[in-house]
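Notebook entry, structure prediction.
Reason for the run: the old model in the group folder had no record of what sequence produced it. Starting over properly, with the input documented here first.
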Amino acid sequence: MQKQTYIISDVESFEPKHIFDCGQCFRWNKQQDESYTGVFGKNVINVKKEGSKIIFKGITDGNIEEVCNQYFDLDRDYKQIKLKLSAIDDNMKASIQYGQGIRLLNQDLWETIISFIISANNNIPRIKGIIEKICKTYGEKIIFEGKEYYTFPTPDELSKAEVVDLRKLGLGFRDTRVYETTRKIVNKDVDLQKLHENNDTNCVREVLLTLPGVGPKVADCILLFSTLKRLEAFPIDVWVRRVINELYIKNGNEEKVNKKEIEQIAKAKYGNLAGIGEIYIALVKGIVKENQATINMPIGRSTKDRKKMAVNKKGKEAITHFKVIERFPKYNCTLLEIKIETGRTHQIRVHLSEIGYPVIGDEVYSNGKNQWNIKGQCLHAKSLKFKHPVTKKEMFIEAELPKYFKDIIEQMRQRGTGL
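New structure, fully documented this time:
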């Protein structure tokens, strides 16, 4: 392993403090220069935000770009998720503005299980201290910038610890739970690979609940914060209960608010976003022949340029529908209305470029040059339509085209006949 650096620019939804101090992880520590250094897998990485840039540097087990893209969930379109959730109500909108830089990490499932068993009835400084002792005692040492760091032990490595050994590390009543869970996983009584392969979240939750020390809240934390990445999971603790009660239930006696009531509200408000539809307007180079069509091509990281996305057979499913609004032969461009079924990073731009009709002004997936010399893409999220999860009333939000986009269309209509 060698030291590597990876820099990304203009990334949205990435604020180190929001990510590392929100309670989803325990192995990241703030440095004097406001950066954070953490250990995951066999990687030690320092993360620093400088203006619009995020700088990752460290020792990684593999290519640092691939490692960071996977762990920090960089291929997921958080802007689209936040747009959908913000439309639910003012409470959600305010919450998202407050924590706008949060990303859900893809943490190793095994490490997440043990970490959240340790978190039961505990505080974050103590949780972090216990986990560091476990890593230092049973993990592997990595030297980064003159300091010693330790990997989280594998199930086989931690199975060397007896209950008395774990107690000496300060686990308290959790020592037996960690010991027994470790053995269940080592013996394949619970197969972690099969949990990843099982798409039934309720079934996966039931299996997790068979592990000693894993109750409903811990199970939901594991589902949400690990590589299982079940976004429908909703961990409920005393603070979540308090917030949901104050904002929605408004029971004078908070103690009487039960978990089932909170789960019903969470499911109604956040659990089903399938009815949301977004409409985009794009001006593309070339005369599109089809009046309407669907692009169904998987998208993943480009193998030629890791900073870009591309159509990739090994990528994730991506479906884009478009129809022609107007053609401008004199200017060799077409105005499109676009709807997407999936929310892959740069999906519309990648798909349109792939079929030979790049977005006007796109400097990443085209050369950006255009006869109007505009700085910016002619791609606009025109409207958002969805059914309100509580009232079931159909909601509609519309945003006007930017002035430069409007001016281009007006100019073409005045000087040349659109078709």
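Summary: Confidence is low (pLDDT under 50) at residues 272-276.
The old model has been moved to the deprecated folder.
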